[in-house]
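User
Here is a favour to ask of a fellow structure person. I am asking you to supply a protein in sequence and structure-token form. Please set it down just below, with no commentary around it:

Assistant
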Amino acid sequence: MKKLITIMFFTGMALFTNAQVKVGIMGGANMSTIVETNNLTNWSTIKKNYKWLQGYQGGVVSEIPLNKRSTFVLQPAVMYFNKGRKYFQQFDTSGAQMKKDSSFKTKLNYIEIPINLLLKFHLGKKVNFVIVGGPYAAFLFGGSEKSETSFKD
């Protein structure tokens, strides 16, 4: 086992010494929601009250060429994602209904670690066609839910 780890370590070091490793930061806004199916009798009217939640994302990404022409690239990253959904419903208060409106927000915080493989086709000096794919692991590390209900006076 020690020999295998040693061989993998030195093979990895050989790849890194010949490669032009690029490291950068990524970030921006995102829109997310949680898709839910339910057997409630009035679910079709309830689910219309769920909306997208605006969040943000950011992290570190690197590109490690796996061949000399940099047409085959490994792209690992560590990213933070803020995801969730919103709910809002207004009620008709003209009758006996006491509730005026009800809302809640669910926010979830994730760390995602994608490991993508890129296949680049150079079409010009600064033009590439890129095919990307690969697995990722995601870890939920926190979240919150805030709810509010208003009643008529």
Remarks:
- Helices lie at 2-18, 43-46.
- The longest helix spans residues 2-18.
